[in-house]
Design goal:
This protein is an alpha/beta fold. The protein has 13 helices and 14 strands. A hairpin with a 5-residue loop joins β2 and β3. α2 crosses α10, α3 packs across α4 and α6 packs antiparallel against α7.
Length: 492
């Protein structure tokens, strides 16, 4: 080797990025028990092998992990990997709202408090059931490509899944957790990611999961994209419209005193008479159209005239603007309980999502304080809570078709019949409506004996149902039951 070559290799070695890891010791009280745990915050450097057997550094993935201390056989403890969605979201929402040892305090019902905000110990922390790892995909949180690599390569449906799968493999290997019961928990687009990962982890890495927890699920995008000629979303959003109109007292209280009987009636209408009417299209007579419009109005709080003008198809952005237009208020998309104020009350669309505005400030402030003050991780990079820099997201693997990862999940369950799935739905969620989720899972085409692998629960809250304390308490109980039942410990 020449001196010049040796100098070049030495220079390359100096530019290699190293992992940045910080650990700290803490305790949390859950159900009257004080649990000691280790927190790890930092970055793993992901590398990609080339055809010649070499490797190249690609990205730094930021994560926060919690592991219970003083465990005799930690390899037998359940291990849960958590991520949110977007695309473009960090893992902060479930970390600081549902699973982690500290949560953002939004009061009983989840409404925005005045700043400054505060964190409280999370009495519903999931650490008593499972060790936890929160993952930020590239360009979210503190995760970034290494110098010389373009970020946009990771803003890609398939590359995103592959990079998260590689992180999970790497963490599992380094922490000696291959024999642990393993779980994924994803929220929103994170459920899309989790379903695709279930198959990729098995097929590429031989990493079989015990369970997947889907919070506010969307696997088949045809159920939620309002395109001309696609009538499915109008059918699936109708029960959520009804729930939100009921919550804001826009329906006849003498007819609908309680929510669940109303939803049962609306779902029956939506899958039957309403679906049949939309199927007929312009073949509906004027009298038939008027009759259907009256029924939709009865369930949504919108006027029959408005519904007829929309050709019986009120889409989401019109609904959130129209329902309380006479009060000069708009409705939240992530959570229909929240109200917003637009300058132009006569406009077609709302200016912002009031339910996101309700959480953005408290979660951003809470995490930025927590990561330095308690986890001792320091970075001057902005922690990207929910970034637009990942857009346009590359869906080239799904060109000329709707994204549908339900088949990946079906395949994973069929080849690993011990894989269980829990699905949490918020009644007031207009981002991922519960009726659309039911349709998706009813069309998985699982074999009969595998249908019981999937279970669902419903909460009187929105997309982030855990910001509503009664829903958080019930969700913790439901998730705990699911993990215990799915862990399948080996008998001694």
């Amino acid at each position: 080797m020449s001196d010049e070559q040796q100098n070049e290799e030495t220079a390359q070695d100096k530019t290699l990025v190293e992992d940045q890891i910080v650990t700290s010791q803490h305790s949390v009280t859950i159900n009257g028990r004080t649990l000691e745990y280790t927190a790890t915050a930092g970055t793993f450097v992901l590398q990609e092998e080339d055809e010649e057997g070499g490797s190249q550094q690609k990205a730094k993935i930021f994560f926060v992990a919690y592991s219970l201390a003083n465990v005799k056989e930690p390899e037998k403890r359940p291990l849960t990997f958590s991520f949110n969605g977007g695309p473009g979201s960090s893992s902060v929402w479930m970390h600081m709202g549902l699973l982690g040892p500290w949560r953002v305090d939004l009061g009983q019902d989840g409404y925005l408090p005045p700043p400054p905000y505060r964190l409280v110990e999370n009495a519903y922390c999931f650490l008593d059931e499972s060790d936890l790892v929160f993952i930020d995909p590239v360009s979210t949180g503190y995760s970034r490509p290494v110098e010389g690599e373009e970020a946009k390569q990771f803003h890609h449906f398939q590359k995103d899944i592959e990079s998260i799968a590689e992180f999970i493999r790497l963490y599992t290997t380094r922490q000696q957790r291959w024999l642990s019961p393993k779980f994924l928990i994803g929220e929103s687009y994170g459920t899309t990611r989790a379903a695709a990962l279930s198959s990729l982890l098995q097929e590429k890495h031989g990493l079989y999961l015990n369970g997947i927890m889907l919070i506010s699920s969307i696997l088949n995008f045809q159920t939620a994209v309002f395109n001309p000629g696609n009538d499915l979303p109008y059918i699936f959003f109708l029960p959520t419209y009804a729930a939100i109109a009921w919550y804001h007292k826009q329906l006849d209280e003498s007819l609908f005193e309680e929510l669940e009987p109303l939803l049962a009636e609306v779902q029956e209408f939506a899958r039957g008479e309403y679906a049949a009417a939309l199927f007929q299209g312009s073949r509906l007579t004027r009298a038939e159209k008027a009759q259907i419009a009256q029924k939709i109005a009865r369930y949504t709080g919108l006027s029959p005239a408005y519904i007829e003008q929309a050709n019986l198809r009120p889409e989401i952005h019109r609904f959130v603007k129209e329902l309380l237009r006479d009060q000069r208020r708009t409705i939240g998309r992530l959570d229909g309980r929240f109200l917003g104020i637009d300058r132009d009350a006569a406009g077609e669309y709302y200016e912002y999502d009031p339910s996101y505005a309700n959480t953005q400030g408290p979660y951003t402030a809470g995490f930025n304080d927590y990561v330095r003050r308690q986890l001792n991780f320091e970075s001057d990079l902005p922690y990207e809570i929910l970034t637009e820099r990942v857009h346009p997201w590359n869906y080239e693997t799904h060109q000329n078709q709707y994204i549908n990862v339900a088949e990946s999940l079906r395949k994973a369950i069929s080849s690993n019949p011990f894989l269980k799935v829990f699905v949490a739905n918020g009644y007031y969620d207009l981002a991922t409506p519960f009726f659309a989720t039911q349709y998706t899972f009813n069309h998985l085409e699982l074999e009969f004996e595998l249908e019981e692998n999937v279970s669902m629960a419903y909460y009187e809250a929105g997309h982030m149902m855990y910001i509503h304390l009664p829903s958080l308490a019930q969700l913790k109980e439901d998730l705990a039951d699911f993990v215990r039942a799915s862990s399948n410990p080996n008998p001694d």
